[in-house]
Amino acid sequence: MRSFVLLPAMFAASVGSAQTLLPNMPAPNLDLYAIEKIGGTVYIGGGFATVNGQPHTRLARFDAATGALDSWAPQVDNYVNTITRAGDKLIAGGSFSAVNGQSRLGIAMFDLATGALEPWNDVANFVSWRQGVAAQGSTFYYCPFSPCRIVAVDAATSLPTGWQSAPLFEEQGNINALMVADGYVYAGGIFRFASGPSVYDDLCRFHLSTGELDSTWHPQPAVNNFGVTAIVRTNDFVVVGGDYNVIAGQNRQGVAAFTPSGTLAPFAPNNSSYEVLSLFP
Fold it and tell me: For residue range 72-126, what is the model confidence (pLDDT) as tens digits?
């Protein structure tokens, strides 16, 4: 199985193969919530104001081979907790309301080649402490502020594709994590909605072809404060992180693995804390 990294609460643990720390690894002064490697460049996002003592407010990038910090330094006024590549664009999500002095409510697009902020703009659920964003190819997925459902935009044209999830989440449900894999758009967070006689809480998936709910997958995590905060795909599993201790009716301490068909896997690390905030495949 492809290895992944857990970030439970305030510390990091490596699971699987050994990791090598770069000797010149950049040092943000505050929280780091998002990491995305694109080619030879690593992008990071969080709550930091400086990196290596230089001004970098919530976004920065560095050379993946040497750790050398790049001069790219957008000005973001609040937390960035998601970074996703969509074609030749970079999508950042979080609880911010401005980027480079321009209004950007919870989501912003940058050109990867130039680093420039793109004119595309929408109102995401920026009041949420986390902002789920996912991408497949040049299409990215996120949750607008109202009505609360997942929509898709083609980053190449900045136009909506027309895809959207159904049914709607309850108003202002927090969609903390999104992922696209195996013909589904996965959603995790703190939310609730009804579909027929069933109620879905905090974790579900929608068909990529139609946007309709997959009613056969109903894991119902028993969450506490944060809800589901991360969803990643490894070679073999869909791995879900959060602050739950029960999922799909089984005990799991903040991290669980499902097969692509939706079956809970035996994988069950014994975390002393079950507040897993981020996962990195």
Answer: 999 999 999 899 999 999 999 998 999 999 999 999 999 999 999 999 999 886 6
Q: What is the Cα–Cα distance from 154 to 210, expressed in whole angstroms?
A: 16
Structure tokens that stand for 169 in this block: 């989440």
d(CA 254, CA 221): 10
Q: Which long-range contacts (CB under 8 A, 24 or more apart) does 39-43 make?
A: 39/64, 40/64, 40/65, 41/70, 43/83, 43/90
Output the CA–CA distances (angstroms, integers) from residue 5 to 90, 124, 134, in the order listed: 22, 28, 18
pLDDT over 50 (residue 23): yes
Cα→Cα distances 24→27, 63, 70, 185, Å? 9, 10, 13, 37
What would the pLDDT profile of 245-256 be if each residue is shown by its tens digit?
A: 999 999 998 999
Contact present, 189 and 132 (Cβ < 8 Å): yes
How far apart are the C-alpha atoms of 16 and 13, rounded to whole Å?
A: 10
What is residue 86's three-state secondary structure?
A: strand
Checking DSSP bridges between strand 246-247 and strand 54-55, what pairing results, if any?
unpaired
The β-bridge relationship of strands 41-46 and 32-38 is antiparallel
**Cα 161 from Cα 138, distance rounded (Å):** 11
Q: For residue 254, count other CB atoms closer than 10 A to its CB.
A: 28
What percent of the chain lies above the pLDDT cut of 90? 64
> How far apart, in whole angstroms, are the C-alpha atoms of residue 7 and residue 280?
9
Q: For residue 34, give the 3-state DSSP assignment.
A: strand
Q: Quickly tell me which residue has 């960035």 as its tokens.
A: 80
Q: Which of 96, 195, 86, 103 is nearest to 149 (CA)?
A: 195
Place of tokens 């420039």: 116
pLDDT tens track for 222-243 = 988 888 989 999 999 999 999 9
